[in-house]
Design brief:
The structure is a homodimer of 565-residue chains. Chain A contains 16 helices and 30 strands. A five-stranded parallel beta sheet of chain A has the order 3-2-1-7-18. In chain A, strands 9-16-10-11-12 form a five-stranded parallel beta sheet, covered by helices on one side. In chain A, strands 21-22-25-24-23 form a five-stranded antiparallel beta sheet, with helices on both faces. Chain A starts with a strand and ends in a 21-residue tail after the last strand. The mean pLDDT of chain A is 96. At the A-B interface, α1, α3, α8, β21 and β22 of A face α1, α3, α8, β21 and β22 of B.
Chain lengths: 565, 565
């Protein structure tokens, strides 16, 4: 008898598992069950369908049931829901949603690729029309039908995660006034530390997005026809013609739970390294399972199309009798947020500290390619490493310049437990249109090495801001040129200008025992100045990580002439 | 007594070593000696200065002697040549080229960062005016003065390496007719295998560059005034107003040799992992030394600004009393060649085979990002791995799409002796504007895994072309759609069209014991078809790696109707 492989779910992991199983085993009976109409939907493309960057729905639908049958000899049942698993008899009960008839499908190996569902908080007004989530092409289409002919004016997005910000861009591009409500104190809180998020927030505000941070959604008001008119938060009431709930997704585990399969503490289906559930004949992958985080070794949810596709291949191999393991994930994420490229991999500083790591970080503004090659755009790199051994824990790279490359280099490095020493000497490709002789990643790794060796000492911008706010007695030494100072600067009673080129000649003007925190534009000059003062016997000198280029607070830009000029 | 550190060479490694030494040791006396006028010249930017992409010479000159003195307290002697090293007395004899006066500088630690010089073959006419090399800003300026006002019409570049091709673009952009002469059978022969080079050559020819491959330069003809008028090769005589010799560089080792320091078999100064020469008080780095290749463990020359800068940091640390090692290089290279991005890392297939490896390769055409996201451009990925264990040996990525990211991911992976299994599951950043759920690198790794596991069997395009040329008896099965066939195809008596979607229904039309080589556009369908035929009991089925998208030979593009339609 040929092996019977049944796959539940037809979006990403499911079709990939089915196709791979077929390629590994030409004799098996392969059946795929999908409750929706469509297969292999590119759901990551939905924000771009809403914006119109992607024109037609068909571009997001690559393969239909006919393709699966003709080319792969896979039977596909669409509009069919799996309602129960009879593990003892190796049967899945399915319901044909068109005919409402139930039937059973036998399996030797079963694959659960049941995906996830956007979270909807149980709040007043949640069923009003005009409130959406975004996980299906039908939802994207409904939103597009509202915004494309500019029927509506005001949108409120709840949740400043990846989908929330991608949709902010899409809706602004459609001419809407867009507000984003986020319960935490920053955008992309699961990805970015405060100063990195602040850098992105500046860009969002420039693009006209209103950010309401640190406030939870409390409910919705509607009109008599049941249409949304207002979004209510703890601190504000926002007029809204459209609201998008983008506060995350929940793994679809109902079928697995009912069948008695183990569910992990994360809420995802528990699987081993072969993506096998607690029943050896049932595999699971994609958004519905939990993953191993390769840095911490802990379980996390990682609902991403990239992971789902990798899962699919591993499962397809294994259900066909092969032996393949999935090592885990790094939480690698990237999003286009208007003209910024925003990425992270591994742990942020806050996540690393919450996980108990003693960390050392660097915050390095840089350019995507050689500064002398035209049209170079800025990027801001933050690295997080373990203090005791310099092992990389994570990285964040944001800005208008190229960031995806740097994130992928870090992802590869993290896969091999690389240290900052490894990263600093990695032979990355160099030519002026692509990067500098030393990439910003090299510089960021070297800053950590300098801190580790005791050469460099720094405070992060938030620590400096606290000191300024508290009115601490220290010298906040700006070593930029008078011209730069005149154009923009950090105003504070502690601030003082002394250009780097004049520092060696003016050491007597600084008190040797005072606390001195030095900054410039990117920290390169500030570090140089710190070493000069160290060498001259100053006792308590540090620089500010990232300096003005990554200062997340206000700058004074009123033109001024430096005192004494 | 403060330590005396003397550095010879002021381009890349030298200034970096000097600055790093100063940051590590504020008390040392640091002196840098440079025979030219300029310091810290961005020589990698010279082709862009010739083209005018970089406007002013000043952009390539970042730091002068005053900067080094004021900020770093480093004494810089420009227009000063180091003529001899007295190792016994720890002295360098230098000659002031302005005054012609010799003097001695004492050192505790000496750094040789003497760079490299373009190779000039000893051929008839080599001293004619109009013949250039490109390693100094003065040379770039002289070329620019000839081409900027369009005084001349025809340029011949000798050598199709990185600088040769960057300069081909620069000179075409200045309106010149450009020919490139290369002794080997392909462009970028030190970087690319034949089929990858062919892909780049198509683009060069589209841009109007005349390629004269497989022919050596034999000399130059001049007029009575000593001006170049012709470049002579083994097979052609080319009219030329300008010739550029770009056949590689030689490490400047004269000073080291005279001082009796060890020179490696590569011709570069021999150094240990700390970049220390055979004299423990003399360090060397940059273009003048040899490096360890991290894949082979063998010594190679790697004259690149990126390597020179990393060397500088390591040397600066060590001469200041620190302890830092430089692990080695991967031969990572990238160049912008008109609208193509051309990169490689590690070993090409030909290099790996020459080094004695038994290899398995993949050749995968793909897109830089999700196919449904607009404006995606093609890339072509070739991976080379060790057959016995799947260990990556190298990668080449070329095309109009994004390649630098893929090269840098591979560079990072190669640094950790990654296998194709590792690469296939690396958690790279995914969002539609940046890549597909599975990156072309993942696909390329998976093709090798499929070959390793026996699922996939393939011939490369050159092997197929030999079979076609020999008139071998086999079926060359095109499984694309009739529409694709009508637009472009490989013409051969062995070629036959049978679209993948009709294959399962038409198995009886193919002889089960014939040799069948399948192709499509990218190989995805061809591999699928191979598995179908395998499953149906066909005995000798393979696909063609890379299929039509990477076919390095002629395609028929005359519109045709498939037979039987």
């Amino acid at each position: 008898m040929d092996k019977k492989i049944v796959i539940i779910g037809g979006t990403a992991c499911g079709p990939k598992a089915a196709a791979r199983a077929r390629r590994c085993d030409q004799q098996a009976q392969v059946t795929m069950v999908e409750q929706g109409e469509n297969l292999s939907v590119a759901t990551c493309g939905l924000p771009y369908y809403v914006s119109g960057v992607i024109n037609s729905r068909r571009e997001l639908l690559t393969r239909g049931p006919d393709f699966f049958k003709a080319v792969m000899n896979i039977d596909v049942l669409t509009r069919t829901r799996a309602v129960a698993i009879d593990r003892k008899n190796h049967r899945v009960e399915v319901l044909n949603l068109k005919t409402d008839r139930a039937s059973n499908i036998e399996y030797d190996k079963l694959v659960l690729a049941t995906g996830s569902t956007p979270a909807v908080p149980d709040l007043k007004g949640k069923n009003l029309s005009g409130i959406f989530t975004l996980s299906k092409i039908e939802e994207a289409h409904a939103i597009r039908n509202l915004v494309s002919p500019r029927k509506i004016k005001k949108a409120v997005i709840i949740g400043a995660g990846l989908i929330g910000l991608e949709m902010a861009e899409a809706l602004v591009s459609r001419g809407l006034e867009v507000s984003v409500v986020e319960a935490l104190d920053r955008v992309l809180p699961a990805l970015l530390d405060f100063e990195m998020a602040a850098y992105v927030e500046k860009h969002l505000r420039e693009k006209g997005v209103k950010l309401l941070l640190g406030q939870s959604l409390t409910g919705f008001d509607g009109d008599k026809e049941g249409r949304l008119i207002r979004v209510i938060t703890e601190k504000a009431e926002l007029e809204a013609d459209l609201a998008l709930l983008a506060i995350g997704v929940r793994p679809n585990t109902g079928l697995a739970k009912s069948a008695g399969l183990d569910i992990g503490a994360t809420g995802g289906i528990a699987v081993n390294s072969h993506l096998q559930t607690s029943d050896p004949d049932i595999y699971a992958g994609g958004d519905c399972v939990e993953n191993v985080h390769l840095v911490t070794g802990r379980k996390i949810l990682a609902p991403l199309g990239s992971t789902a596709n990798k899962h699919g291949r591993v499962i397809g191999t294994n259900v066909a009798g092969g032996d393949e393991a999935f090592p885990g994930v790094l939480g690698t994420s990237i999003a286009k947020v208007f003209e910024y490229n925003v990425g992270r991999v591994g742990l942020s500083q806050s996540q690393a500290q919450a996980a108990g790591y003693d960390v050392v970080t660097s915050l390095v503004p840089g350019y995507e390619h050689a500064t002398y090659y035209p049209k170079g755009k800025e990027i801001l790199v933050k690295l997080v490493a373990e203090k005791s051994n310099g092992k990389l824990l994570g990285g964040q790279v944001v800005g208008p310049g190229e960031t995806a490359k740097r994130i992928d280099v870090l992802a590869t490095a993290l896969s091999f437990s690389a240290t900052v020493d490894d990263l600093a000497n990695t032979d990355l490709a160099y030519a002026p249109p692509y990067n500098s002789a030393l990439d910003p990643l090299h510089n960021a790794a070297n800053v950590i090495r300098n801190k580790q060796s005791g050469l460099a000492r720094a405070l992060n911008p938030m620590e400096v801001e606290s000191k300024l706010k508290r009115g601490d007695d220290f010298i906040f030494l700006d070593v930029r040129s008078p011209g730069e100072w005149a154009a923009y600067r950090i105003e504070a009673p502690q601030a003082r200008l002394l250009p780097l080129s004049e520092l060696r000649q003016n050491l007597d003007k600084l008190p040797g025992d005072a606390e001195i925190v030095i900054f410039c534009h990117t920290s390169v000059r500030a570090y140089q100045a710190q070493r000069i003062l160290d060498g001259a016997g100053f006792k308590d000198v540090k620089f500010m990580d990232g300096s003005i280029a990554s200062w997340p607070y206000e700058l004074s830009t009123e033109r001024k002439t430096p005192a004494g000029e």
